Amino acid sequence: MHDKLQPLPGALFAMPDLHVVELAGRDATTFAQAQFINDLNGLQPGHWQWSGWLTPKGRTVALFAVASWSDDRIWLLLPDLDPSGLAEALRRFVFRSKVAVTVRDDLVVGGAFAKPERAERNRFVEHDGVAEFDLGTPEMPRLLRVGCPAPAVDDAALQRWRMFDLEHGLPRLGPDQSGQWTPQQLSLERIRGFSVKKGCYPGQEIVARTHFLGKAKRGLALLESDRAIAPGAEVTGDARAVGTVVASAGQDGRHLSLAVMPLDREATPLSVGDSPVGERPLREGLAR
């Protein structure tokens, strides 16, 4: 086995919409445990999990991967949203905790549709300053490399990456959808993205009440159309509103959207505006 992660000829492409926010200091893990929706107590160094941050009313501000380097160093791999805005918001809750919240603009992020060399499932590996993460499935391998030399820009590959996320039920929340939805409405249980058993965190009471009282009425549905659909668009069925699009992506005439829809609903033809949409089953495989 080589000491360095080997190059992926022609495969690695730039991921400009994914940023690294670092929590560093004696209280890094304690701070993250108190703020984020998943339980870090079982997360060992060298491993990662999906998580997020909520408003006090239980609405999802941001979704990200939490990677533990050690008790005093954690990375947040944040897609789509402004990392400076998230870092500044988190700093308001530091108070006397010994933790620094920093946007790691020095770290270049690249992705590839290739089998990771060393990372596997939720275990990430660092060699020669480059961290490798497994973001794929056995049927469709994908990897991230953080801290790599600047890769080429490939808009088609980037759009394909986003479509993969949506197909597997990973919401890509842009600024207009931040703070709109509860974890249950985003079906984050599918990717093991939140805990109902850990201690307090912002919005925890609402998340726990919804879970234990069985009051989750809506969740994600995957829709396919032949034209682009903007997040925030209304999904209609039988001439009435039945859902809202939260994320979308597409290429080559195929467009996918994730929409928050009633869990218990009749099968009726769906449309967005004057465009018909078809519902597709969500794939498994991104749960960590």
TrEMBL record:
Signal peptide: none annotated. Transmembrane segments: none annotated. The lineage of its organism: Bacteria, Pseudomonadati, Pseudomonadota, Gammaproteobacteria, Lysobacterales. The gene is ygfZ. This is tRNA-modifying protein YgfZ. Residues 267-288 are annotated as: Disordered. The keyword DNA damage does not apply. It comes from Novilysobacter luteus. Keywords: Transit peptide.
